[in-house]
Each structure stands twice: as structure tokens, then as C-alpha cells.
Amino acid sequence: APLYRFAAAHLGMSFSRLSPFVAALPGFAVLAAAGLHAALARRGLGARGAVLALLPAAAALAAAAPGDVPLDGVAVALGVGAAAVTALAAFTGSRVVAVALLALLPFTHGQRMVLLRPRDEIRTTSPLVERIREELRPAGTRFAWVGPRPPALLSSNQEAVLGLRSIHTHDAFASRAFADWAESLHPVRPMLEARDGEDGAARYDRRFSRVGHESRLTDDVLATAAISVLLSTRPLAERVATPIGTVAGVHLSRPRVVGPIAAVVRGFERTAPGDVRVAPGDLLGDAARAGVTTEADAADHTRFALRDDDRPRLLFSSRSHHPRWTATAGDRPLETVRVNDLFLGVVVPAGVERVDLDFRPWVRFAWIPQAALVLSLVGAALLAPRSRRTRTSVPTGRSP
């Protein structure tokens, strides 16, 4: 545990939600694969393999002994079962048992992600959802949870299905800039030391599920985050937000400053190649809001219509900057920049009236290694019988 705390504080593991034992599993998996390969090759498990087989159990007991990492009964049962099947495969040399183990573990690990109910039986609305939709729909802005929140209520991995937007993330592989921004709103401490308090330090991972306290919603944050609804389980301070209703015990409030989802400003300062800075207050003016309208909006494509202008200006979009966002005006590429260290901006030349933003990540090529893996497995399956016949064939000639 002390080594893990040191790595979290000084080696960049600050947004990992893995406990020390779970983080050690990849290494144990490599050792187990080496031992299983030796056993299936009929070389025997041996004393060294037996010691390696005991290491994961010893690590689990060492992690649980101080009480830092609670034991999960289901995980323990699965681990014992997997160890038993692995031992059976190792000592019998059965490839059938080994393949069954490889098929069983991914199924049990991913079972919670399988949709076991018909889609039409799952409710995707409620009085709270409808009220939030009503408040967000005119401007396409976002909501945010403030302070303690009920578990599993409008979590960030559900809101997309419901057609809602928030500032929160669920296990996102976000940029360091977003991580720093989220931490400024919801300060975190190492998982093994976390205690829930007014500042909202609840857990230590990549999940940004709530703003710790309304005092952290400064005017600069609100001007750029496009938050128009605050959700809470208690009334918020009136100096920060105005109450607009209560639904099912959840308080809805309007922040004192509501920033735009997109705006156009003329005044911006280049601070570095690809970086600009704007005054958050410049985004709140009527001219900044009226200078742009959103014609189409999807997760990976947005089209903006701009008022004609004879001078260059900056199109501000309240979303995280990523180098794979590309901007075009027709067939003409435009420069994308990072605004105020986090947000996305486009430098728009004079005379441009339409801008398209497209997100083109490298992950779209992920099918290539997957297809290669499938072809490799098919090839191995086709060659295995021939290899077995070659090994077991008896020569017909006389031996020397």
C-alpha cells in the first residue's frame, strides 16, 4: 500500500481506480501463461511453477490483511474456480480444459455488461429526466451534480442514452488538462485514504461524478462549461444559484452565470503554438452568442453557421480539445486551437460563414488488429490437426 501511494502521488497514477492487488494481475497473468505453456508442453509443473501458482493468493491475503482492500465474495469464488480449472489443465495437459478456462473468464468478467432484458422493457424516462430535458433543450447546455448524490442516479454512462449532457465522465481516458480541471471542481485524495467531506473528496479514480461544493463553481468555470442546471440533494447557496424546482427529492437550480455551448469572439491572445486565451467574460456577451448557431450536432460531427465578418475571429466550442478534432469550411481546412488550456477553438478567417467540426480518432483502425487476431486463431485451428498427425505418425522404414 505505501508503494502504491507513492506511485499515485509521484508517478502519474493519480487517476487509476485499481487497487494494488488488481494492478499486479497483469504480471501474474504473464507468469501463469508461462507456467501453463510449460505444463501443456508435457514438461511438468515443477516446484517453481507451484510457487508461482501460490503468489497471487499470497498477494491477495497480504493486500486484505491490513483492511485496506475488502474481499469480494464473488471475486474470491471466481478466483478459486479459475485456480482449480487452471491446476486441472496444468496437471492433465488438457488443451480442452485450457480453452474452456479462456472462454469462461471473459464471460464471467463481462457478464454485467450483457443486456439481459429486452430493450423495450427498460424505461428511459422519468419525471426528473423530463424536467432536465425541458431545462436543457433550448440551448443544448449541460447539467452538473453538486455535493453528495444518490448512487446510480443519472450516472454519466447513462445520460447519453437519455439524450442528456453533463460535465461528468465515467472512466474516461481524458487528457491531463481535463483531469486537472475536474480535480479543481472535485478534489481527490488517494483511494486508500479518501474520506468524504465538504470539498467532495470521495474516491480516487478517473470517474468525475460530481462537483464537490457549489463554492467551486466560479464565474470563470461557469462561463466556459455551459452548465445551465445544477442538481443536488440539498438547497444550494443563493449567491451561487437560484432554485427552479424539486423533483423526487432532487433540487434543481440555475447557476448565476450560464455560459454558451458555442460563441464567437474577436479578442483572443495566442500564448503558444496551438494555444490561445480568451477572457471568460467575453463569451457571455450577446454578440458572442448571437454570432453562431448550431445547425447539426452529433458526438463526432458539429456544423456551425456564423455571421459574416470581415475580420478573423475565434469560434469557441465548450468541449475538450483533442488533436483529432478537425475543422473545415467547405473543402478548406481551418486551424484548431486549445482555448484556456482545455477547450476547443477554431480560428475562422474573414468571410467564412460555415464551419464543420469532425472527430476522427485513430481507434477507427482498431478493426485491423482484431481482424488479424481472428485470422490467426482460424489459421491455428486449421493447422492444429495436421500438426498433431505429424507428431503421432510412425515411420514405416527400418530404424538405423
Distance between the termini: 64 Å
- Along the chain, the helix and strand elements come as HHHHHHHEHHHEEEEEEHEEEEEEEH
Number of strands: 14
Which consecutive residue ranges, at least 5 long each, have pLDDT under 50? 12-24, 189-204
Report Rg. 28 Å
Average the pLDDT over all residues and give the rounded result.
75
Helix/strand structural class? alpha+beta
Q: Report the biggest beta sheet as strand number plus sense, adding barrel if it closes.
A: 10 strands, mixed
The total count of helices amounts to 12
State the helicity in percent bands: 25-40%
Residues in β-strands, percent: 15-25%
* CA-based shape: globular
Structure commentary:
With 400 residues, this protein is of the alpha+beta class. The protein has 12 helices and 14 strands. Strands 5, 6, 7, 8, 9, 10, 11, 12, 13 and 14 form a 10-stranded mixed β-sheet that branches. A 4-stranded mixed β-sheet has the order 1-2-4-3, sandwiched between helices. Strand 12 (332-339) and strand 13 (343-348) form a beta hairpin. Helix 3 packs antiparallel against helix 4 (46-64). The model is unreliable at 12-24 and 189-204 (pLDDT under 50).
